[in-house]
Structures are given as C-alpha cells and as structure tokens.
Specification:
Blueprint: E1 27-28, H1 39-43, E2 50-54, H2 60-66, E3 71-76, H3 79-89, E4 98-102, E5 115-119, H4 125-134, E6 141-147, H5 148-155, H6 165-173, E7 174-182, E8 187-188, E9 195-202, H7 211-221, H8 229-234, H9 236-256, H10 271-274, H11 320-324, H12 329-342, H13 354-366
Parallel strand pairs: 2-3, 2-5, 3-4, 5-6
Antiparallel strand pairs: 1-8, 6-9, 7-9
Length: 372
C-alpha cells in the first residue's frame, strides 16, 4: 500500500476477553473468530522462531502461534488472563513451548525474539512502537494492531495529510506496511474507532544517524509542518537554541580533541571540523525506561497514541543567548546559507522525504550546526 491511501479489506483479528480491565483493549465478537488464522500467514512464522506476543488475552491467537513457532513468550498484564491462558495450554503438546510473563509490556524486559505480535491498548501505541524499534537484537518483524488513525500516520508518505514526525522517525528505523483494516463492528462492545494491522520491519543494520541530531532537526521542522523551513529557521528562539547547542557541541568536540573550546557565534565559530557530531548512539540508548517519555514520541500533539504532547524542545548548553531568545547575526547567516545551498529554504517539512531530511542534516552538521 502506498502511504496508507488504499484501504484494505475489513477483517477481524482476534478475540479479547470482555472483562479485561485494560483501557481500550477490545474483544472481538465470537462470530468472527474463524478469521483469526488470517493474521498467521502474514507474520511469516518459521518453525525455528521465537515469537513475542503482547496482550494474548485468553489465547486464541496464542494457540495458532504455537502451532507454527518454536516458542511463544506471552506478556499479559491481567492476572485473570494469565490464569486462563495457562489453563488453556495445560496438557496440550504445546505446553512446554509457551512462556507466560505477567506484567506491563512497557515495564517488562523483553527476551530475545524473532517476531512480535501485539494486540495492545491504544494509549501505549507510540511508546511501545519505539521500545520495539529500540530492542536489540532487532526482531525480523512485528505485526501490531493499532487504532486506524495512528496506523495511517505511521505509514504516511511525504505530501499526505497524515505525514508527521511520527512517520518520519518511525520510517527512519523501519519499513512499515499497512496490512488490513479491522472494522469497529468486529469488537464487543463496538468502539468509536476502527483499527488496523501494521507490519513493522526494523532496518538491519539501523541507519548510521546520530538520533539526537536527527530528532532535534525533525522536531523543529515539524513545529509548523506547512511553513517553509526558511521561515521556521529564522525564528529567534529556535536560532538561539541552535546556536547554544552548536557551541556546546563545538566545545565538547574541542575538549575531546585536547584543544580549546570556541563559541558558535560570530567571534567563536569552531568550524565544521571541531563541531563534528559524535558517533551515532546505539538503539539501546533509545529504549523507553519506566515512566519515561519515549524519545521518539514526537507526534503533532495528537498522534493517535493518546499520550500528551511533549514540552518544547530544550537543548543543552543554553546560556545568555537562549534567555534573550536571539541568535547572533553570524550564526543566523550560517543557518540560512545551509538552507539556501541545499535548495530547501522554501521547502516545507510536510513535503520532504527521508533522503531530503538526511541530506539536510548532513549539510547542517558540516556547517557546524547541531541539534543535540
């Protein structure tokens, strides 16, 4: 599917227990349980695979997974569902191949797995997605049911109305495909929204990008995604933050090289070499810790995840320049020169693809301009 525009057939996914206390964890009507198997071929399960299932409920999908996989690790927060699942598999040939972990999937350490299958409360869609992308070693793929609107944002392409920071960040780290739509009438009780099943394939190896730099730039660019980049980067507070952060990056690079630290303003530009960005962080550094906001959860304030919008970006090393909300004229000229040279001064974030963002970040860094 290209950018989520083409709607897939409306199919049911699996059965959820009506008594489950999880918010927005819905139950599929029993009359549609025959189509449970429709998800299994999509997952591409091998006989040697370890499958992580998040939110197994009473185990309808779990039993199908056990027929194909070497092992299934099921993470379930509801103790009643845990007991039901263990009873269901007890005495069957698959009992030894199932490990049930009772706990919150966001707070539980995940074991090694080849594939992930998840039917999750929709309010944790964004943090769970990025915990998955941060997990090492990376899984081959994940099949996850999301709220339909959130799924469309995940798969959106440049120029589409749903294109946002969520899409740009997620697609940097994974190939994402919309598989099928799950109509709200398949659930009991019917929710107010439709759902969708999405396939996520982490890029292996992950892109050689310093994610702090990438995310800082993308977050700034999508602050007003339909404004030109030239207008966004002329804003005083944004320039002040960039100047302070570039000065800190230059100082850190100079200190690491054993030299003196120069500022990033008119009188202290350390130059592209001294201000070179540090090596890309590992994906382990992006993992969501207990109670922490996901570092990549930067939707437009309503990304379908149900999570509140994050506060404005705060960059380290901000001093008097940031407090005044003004950058030096020399630094402003450098930033605008990069935009002009790249041909993107009149471009809008909503229209830019991954390659254009990557090229712009490289140009900024080469000019001694840093976002983290």
């Amino acid at each position: 599917m290209e950018g989520g525009k083409r709607e897939a057939p409306c199919l049911s996914l699996g059965e959820r227990e009506e008594s489950s206390p999880r918010a927005l964890a819905l139950s599929i009507h029993p009359s549609h349980s025959h189509s449970l198997a429709s998800l299994i071929p999509t997952a591409g399960i091998k006989p040697t695979d370890v499958v992580l299932e998040i939110g197994p409920g009473t185990g309808n999908l779990t039993m199908k997974l056990l027929e194909r996989a070497k092992k299934v690790v099921a993470v379930e927060v509801d103790p009643r569902m845990v007991l039901e699942l263990r009873r269901r598999v007890q005495g069957t040939p698959h009992a030894a191949n199932l490990t049930v972990v009772q706990g919150d999937a966001m707070k539980t350490a995940w074991p090694y797995f080849d594939l992930c299958v998840a039917n999750i409360p929709y309010q944790i869609s964004s943090p769970l997605t990025f915990k998955l992308l941060a997990h090492q070693p990376a899984a081959r793929a994940a099949i996850i049911m999301y709220q339909h609107e959130f799924a469309m944002r995940l798969v959106a392409k440049a120029g589409e109305s749903a294109y946002c920071r969520l899409a740009v960040n997620a697609q940097l780290l994974a190939r994402i495909t919309h598989l099928l739509k799950v109509g709200k009438n398949n659930f009991r009780p019917p929710p107010l929204v439709d759902s969708s099943v999405v396939r996520i394939e982490p890029r292996r190896p992950p892109p050689a990008v310093h994610f702090g730099e990438w995310d800082g730039m993308v977050r700034l660019a999508f602050g007003r995604k339909n404004r030109t980049l030239g207008a966004l980067f002329r804003a005083g507070p944004a320039l002040a933050l960039l100047e302070a952060n570039s000065a800190a990056a230059a100082a850190a690079a100079a200190a690491a090289a054993g030299g003196g630290a120069g500022g990033a303003g008119d009188g202290g530009h350390a130059g592209p070499t001294a201000a070179a960005a540090p090596p890309p962080p590992s994906l382990d550094a992006m993992a969501v810790e207990d109670g922490a906001a996901c570092p990549m959860d930067f939707g437009d304030g309503d990304d379908g995840s149900g999570a509140p919008a994050l506060p404005p970006l705060v960059l380290p090393g901000a001093g008097r320049t940031q407090k005044r909300g003004r950058a030096s004229e020399g630094f402003k000229a450098r930033v605008l020169a990069v935009l002009q040279a790249s041909g993107l001064a009149e471009a809008r974030a909503a229209k830019l693809g991954q390659d254009q963002f990557l090229g712009l970040l490289a140009a900024f860094n080469a000019g001694g301009i840093h976002f983290s």
